[in-house]
Description:
Bound molecules: arginine
Distance between the termini: 33 Å
Mean pLDDT: 94
CATH superfamily of the domain at 393-424 and 431-550: Isoleucyl-tRNA Synthetase, Domain 1
Number of strands: 12
CATH topology of the domain at 393-424 and 431-550: Isoleucyl-tRNA Synthetase, Domain 1
Structural class: alpha/beta
CATH architecture of the domain at 393-424 and 431-550: Orthogonal Bundle
Shape: globular
Oligomer: single chain
Number of helices: 21
Helix content: 40-55%
Largest sheet: 4 strands, parallel
Strand order of the largest sheet: 5-4-9-10
Amino acid sequence: MDYKAYIAQRLPVEGASREEIAESIAVPPDTTLGDYALPCFKFAKIMRKSPALIAQELAASYPADGVISEATALNGYLNFKVNRRGLAEETLARIKREGGKYGSSALGAGKTVCIDYSSVNIAKPFHIGHLSTTVLGGALYRIYGFLGYRVVGINHLGDYGTQFGKLISAYKHWGKEEEVAQGGIHAINDLYVRFNNEATEEMEEEAREYFRLIECGDKEAVALFERFKQLTLDYVQKIYEKLHVTFDSYAGESFYIDKMGPVIDELKEKGLLTESRGAQVVDLEPYGMTPFIVLRSDGASLYGTRDLAAAFYRKKVYDFDKCLYVVAYQQNLHFKQLFKVIELMGEPWAKDLVHVAYGMVSLEDGAMSTRQGKVVWLEDVLSRCVEKALSIITEKNPDLENKEEVAEKVGVGAVMFGALYNSKIKDIVFSYDKALNFDGETSVYVQYTCARAASVLAKAEGGEYGAVEPCPQEFELLKALADFPDTVKAAAEKYEPSLIARYAVDTAQKFNKFYFDCKILQAESEDGKNFRLALTRATLTVLRNALTLLGIGIPEKM
Ligand code: ARG
């Protein structure tokens, strides 16, 4: 609930817009006089009245209701009291009623959103750079689903290109069946790296031939390619399970090879294709961009050509209202070009294509940095963080049951939260120690707060209670709980799961202030105790909903 906007809507001030009024309203340091206050000094000049008189007149005409129970004037300030009791009753009843669905809505009913995310490359390392797309995409997938949209999660596999010819050649020369069976994607990657370092001109030639064989459906070449693909998918599947992400389609680049023709024909018909040094391109100079290459001079398609076919395919098959591409900002130009080409083709849905760009993730720990030429596998970051989590947990609570399980949720959650907490476009330096700080702006802080709330509730069930006037700490927490549904909507609208991550930390902080300042189980009255227990239960529900949307696990006890 945006109280400032609510008040402003009901408060006509001469010469000031509703927005200006809302902006002028503040939360006073001492809330005994009011929860919100509007200083009337700046209106004195236009209204040609004293601030005190303005405040008095506005107070007299303000229509108090079930939301704002009172407006009073004092020394040029107009003070508002929120109906805290009403807020408490309404919010707690709603959270209790809706439980795990609190924050969801039917906003997206009948609408479809496609989300292209993670989109791994076959036979290449699944590295730290894939963290953000996987985790942000997974969060958006759940957030949109929570808001009633039909969501189609698409893993646009990088499974096409000359590198597969190279891989087959390398495998033929150096590969050992047992090694590949044993080492899986790591073994394949080693072969690929070795090819790039050691391949002779003959091998390069052979690689081109193998790629051609894959393309024309040669049995052996295709079988090897399929094998490498399956090994990669089996490997990433395990990581996807850890990160709680799922996909509805794994249609990758190779899927579109036979679907490019009609789109290219259409480009031709519409007079959009021009020749440039033998290549077929769409000229984008009038829009300040380099040409979009559709076919290379040797007739081969490109990444962009496949993306073009994929967009048309998705529109036809899913009839999306929106199609999101969760891809790093390095590809800003690619998507601007792609969307422009589709717009030039006269497709009205070009406006529904959105590049959800995000920044880079690097590790603080230099030893594992990519800059030293080493690829950082996401798998290693996850296990290292889980290991560290386990040692912290063991130290803090040696008697805890299921320590491994808790460490898994804490460690994996910490890595995910690293990619979720900051505005997505920012570059992030991931630090294990910061991510695992129990008192920081971290997932473990939120998880620990959930465990704390659960442990209070395990001590006392709580029951019915009569009317209770919330104290300031309770009120702050209630306001936050009431804000959750709006936060979820804003996260979807802005493609910004960080709003939910920040919300979770902020709400956990408010809960902890309440927990320490207001003794829950030692409240003065039975009503007061039961009210606090109800507030604790509601907080637990909301924090769980928030973490669940982000894909982060919640240990029962910590
Ligand atoms: N596989 C690509 C990469 O790793 C990302 C693909 C993103 N999706 C797309 N439709 N282009 O860079």
